[in-house]
Write a structure and sequence with these properties.
By secondary structure, the protein is an all-alpha fold. Helix content is about 70%, strand content about 5%.
Length: about 300
């Protein structure tokens, strides 16, 4: 029996030497695991540039230059934004129960309209010819990414609406208001607690939507990035520059609010201006470096 085992071991060792395989060695009982080092990144890498509080004003200045360079295209998109605001206001006054549905439709169309404005700025930046049809077809090749990003926005909107209903049911103290008197009912002194809670909840969702969208759509157009990566990069940009981007968000809110005062007609100018400026915000905050050459785009 002993002779048989010895022969088997000898044959196994000889077979291992013949095939080039290393003979089996038992690992030490207390060997430490080999640490894992992730592989180096492949492809372009996003580097965030420093920003100052004057940067949003520079973005508006460059956006205005783009608008003046192609006013016909800008006015076309501005009229589209104004039409959306008029339809939304009309539905709210006559059929308020459909307001959320129309708002969802506007949320679906809005990013694709903005994509056309980004395409105008992108082409002008590169010295390429700028045509309305090219801007209208800028979404081609980005349907999947844009669709996924719009879906994310719609989910956030639905959650926002659900949270608003909960706040309304818990904190509204003066009964269900009519459509005509909704402003007076909301700002009734008895509903001060409701106003404060509603603004707090709305601010959280508005901040989340703004952080997700601040540079994600221009990035999809520029780099053909998938929606999740673009959204994550956008949130990272906001995390790196919260003060400047909050100032930028405040400027957007003020300009949109002022534009809505004369029956929303101000959106004809404000809509394309903010669209062009958002492209320049993206280009100003993110620099792409190639992994192999390390050269900035």
């Amino acid at each position: 029996m002993s002779h048989t085992l010895t022969s088997t071991q000898t044959d196994t060792a000889a077979s291992g030497q013949a095939t080039g395989a290393a003979p089996y060695e038992a690992s030490p009982a207390h060997a430490e695991p080999v640490p894992y080092f992730p592989p180096p990144p492949v492809g372009p890498r996003a580097v965030f540039r420093p920003l100052g509080f004057s940067s949003p004003l520079q973005w508006l200045t460059r956006g205005w230059a783009d608008f003046r360079a192609h006013p016909g295209i800008g006015l076309f998109y501005g009229l589209c934004f104004w039409a959306m605001a008029v339809v939304l206001a009309g539905v709210f006054q006559t059929k308020p129960e459909y307001t959320m549905s129309i708002a969802s439709g506007c949320l679906l169309v809005g990013p694709f309209l903005a994509l056309g404005l980004y395409e105008v700025s992108r082409r002008r930046e590169r010295g390429e010819p700028v045509r309305l049809m090219d801007s209208l077809l800028a979404w081609r090749g980005h349907v999947k990414s844009m669709g996924m990003l719009v879906l994310v926005f719609m989910v956030l909107e639905l959650l926002w609406g659900r949270a608003s209903l909960v706040v309304f049911a818990v904190f509204f103290n003066t009964g269900l208001p009519s459509t005509a008197g909704v402003i007076e009912a909301v700002f009734n002194p008895e509903n001060l607690e409701f106003v404060l809670v509603y603004l707090a909840v709305g601010s959280v969702f508005a901040l989340l939507v703004f952080a997700t969208s601040v540079v994600s759509i221009p990035m999809i157009l520029d780099r053909d990035t998938d929606a999740i990566t673009a959204a994550i990069q956008s949130i990272r940009v906001f995390y790196e520059h919260p003060g400047v981007l909050l100032f930028w968000g405040a400027l957007i809110a003020v300009l949109v609010f002022v534009s809505l005062l004369p029956l929303g007609a101000g959106l004809v100018l404000t809509g394309p201006l903010l669209g062009h400026a958002t492209w320049h915000a993206y280009r100003d905050v993110i620099e792409w470096q190639e992994a192999e050459e390390g050269a900035a785009r």
